[in-house]
Amino acid sequence: MFEFCEDPSTLETARWFACYLTNGVHFRFYQSFLTVLLLLAITAPVALAFGFAGAMASRSHVAPLRWIGKTYTAMVRGVPDIAFFLFFVIALDQALEWLAHQAACPDWTDPIRQGANFIVCDAAKIPQSNAPQWVHEAYNFGIAVFTFAIVFGAFAANVLFGAMRAVPRGQLETGEAYGMTHRQTFWRILVPQMWIYALPGLSNLWMILIKATPLLFLLGVEDIVYWARELGGSRTSQYQYPHPDWRLWYFLGLLVFYLGMTRISEILLGRLTRRLSRGQATMAGEDQRKAFA
What we know:
This protein is mainly α. The chain has one domain: MetI-like fold (Orthogonal Bundle), CATH 1.10.3720. The chain is built from ten helices and two strands, in the order ααααββαααααα. The protein has helices spanning 13-20, 24-58, 63-78, 81-104, 133-166, 169-177, 182-212, 224-232, 247-277, 283-292, and strands at residues 113-114, 117-118. The chain has a two-stranded antiparallel sheet with strand order 1-2. A hairpin with a 2-residue loop joins β1 (113-114) and β2 (117-118). α2 (24-58) packs antiparallel against α3 (63-78) and α7 (182-212) packs antiparallel against α9 (247-277). The longest helix has 35 residues, at 24-58. The termini are far apart.
């Protein structure tokens, strides 16, 4: 980045670190922080949508929908996250390639499953081997987002289902007494009031989601943990910037990052809790009414 970085072996300590921390590999490390933040920004609303759909299905009066909702939440919550991530990504990737294979290569006669190998025609590979690198990275990232959303959506479904049941029945009966339909009471009374009951559980899920982002490495995404391990490991003289094992310092940096994310989340969630508690028949709502009395 700097003109004096042409020969790092001749630099003094300050300039050596200036060149070391601004080389191309470190910029990929810095970009990986944006990858983590982008994952959180996309996964949170998608997982919430999965959770809301699962909660609605679990309380449906239609038996098949209710079975699907309860099976989804029970099955995903009952499987260890790391096992689900490793299995689901492989299964989803192979399912997509199988569908593409059926459409692109109908004349293929060899078996697709050959022992431990899964072989499809070249036209069915997703993404194509000659595709640009960013296509492969975007595909892996999309698979990661969908996998995270499936897992945390199941936990969110359980939280939202409990929150819906926590809304006082009298509120719904009052709406029905005023002539509201079941759909109207659901969207105008139940849904607006359930969030205050769901927020504690959703807050915990958000914190767990932040801590689960290092699992990106298992899904083929070069995240901050991957780069911290790669850059922090010892480098011999054959590298441009040789150094001993510095993984401790890199992982200390990650510790500060995750603690900072946790603290910011606590502040924002606290403000959201106070806002949603206004006018609600909860302890926080009662405290606010007494404060303004």
